[in-house]
Amino acid sequence: MSSEVIFWPGLPSLPEDLLLARDQGRVLFVVGAGASYPKPTQLPDFGGLVAKIYDIVDPSMSSAIKAVSKKDGPKWYEVTDLLSHEQRTELKFFCQREFDVVLGMLERRIDGDPSKESTMRQAATTVLSQTIEPNPVHDALVRLGQRYGQTLLVTTNFDRLLSEAASKLRVQHEAFARGEIPNPSSSRDFAGILHIHGKLGWRKEKGSALILTDQDFGDSYLRRNLITSFLYDAARIFHIVLVGYSASDSPVRYLLNAIAADERHFVDLKRRYAFVGCKPGDERMAVEWQSRGITPIVYDKIDEHKALGDLLVRWADIIPDRRNEKGTKSYLKKLAALDPDSTEGLAAQSFLRYYARRSNPSEQAELARILSGASRSPRWLTFLNRIIRDSGKGR
C-alpha cells in the first residue's frame, strides 16, 4: 500500500505512488468545473450555468429557479408562479440536478430541433465567455500537467482558461476538442489540452460544438462511444486524477461510468483518484467515490474549496522543474532542521522518503549534504540511507 506524503500542516496528504507516477509521466489530470470556481475566474458549475441560461432566455423560469434554490425554499411543485406544464417539468428536473435533461427540454421547447446555433447554446456561450482570467488552480494544473516538456490535460470544461494559464506560464501547449483529440498513448508525443466536451472559440482559434444536453451526452458517450473509448484507453496507460468534480451532477455520471469501468473485465486499469471536497466528518462522500472504483483524496471544502487550491499549488511547487529548484532546496533545508522524531519531523520523513525515491544519485548526494549540515540530527542520514537501500537506488 502506498505511503502518504504530507506537504504542509492542515493540508491533505497525497499517496506517494501518485506523486512518483506524475513525475514519471504516468498521470492524466481530468479537470472539471470546480477548477474554474475560485477568484478571479468564478465561472458557475453546471447548475449555475443552467440558472444563468434561464436568466437570459426565460425570465419567468429564472425566478422560479431562484426560489427553489434557496435553502428553505419551496419544492418544485409548490412554486406558485404561472408556469406551463413544460416549464414545471423542467423545474422538476432542475431540482433533481439532472441539468443535461433540463437543457435538452429547454432547447426543444424554445428552439425545436437541437442546433449548434440554438438560443439556448448562444446563451451558454455568452455566460461562459464572461471571463478569460485563469486562477491559481489553473496555473497549478498546467504545471502538474507537464509531461516530457509538453502540456497534457483533459478537461470537460468549455472555457479556455487552461490554455490562457499555459500561455502566461510560457509552456508548450496546444488545444484540441472532440474529434480532433489524439488517441491516448504512452508515447512522448501524446500531449495537448484536450476538451472532451467541446470548447469555446478563443482569440483566433475556432471553437467546437458543446456537449450540453442529454442528447449530446448520449450521442458522445453511448451511441458514438468516442469519449468512452478515449477514457477506457487512457485508464490503461495513466493514473487518472479527477479535479473539480461533484459526484451528484448528472453529466458526471457519464464520465465516472466510463472511467470506473468494471475491473473484472479490464484488469489492466491503473488506479484512479479524485479530489473530493467534504464537510468535516462526512464519510459518506468518500464511500460514494470508492464505490465507483475511484480512490478519494478528501479535503475540507470550507472557504469555497480553498484547501484544494492550496494543495495543488504546493504540489506544483515541488515537482522536478527548473523553476522549483531554489524553492525545493530551501524547503529541504527547513525539513533538515527538524528533529526527526518530533511531530513535524515525522511528517517531514514522508516528504523526504518520496523525494529520495524520485531522485537520481547526484540529487540524493545533494540531499545527503543538506541532511548532514551543521546542527542536523545524525538520524536524518540513517533515515536517508535506509530509504535509498530499500528502494534499490543506491550504488
Automatic annotation (TrEMBL):
One Pfam family linked to the record: SIR2_2
The name this protein goes by in its record: SIR2-like domain-containing protein
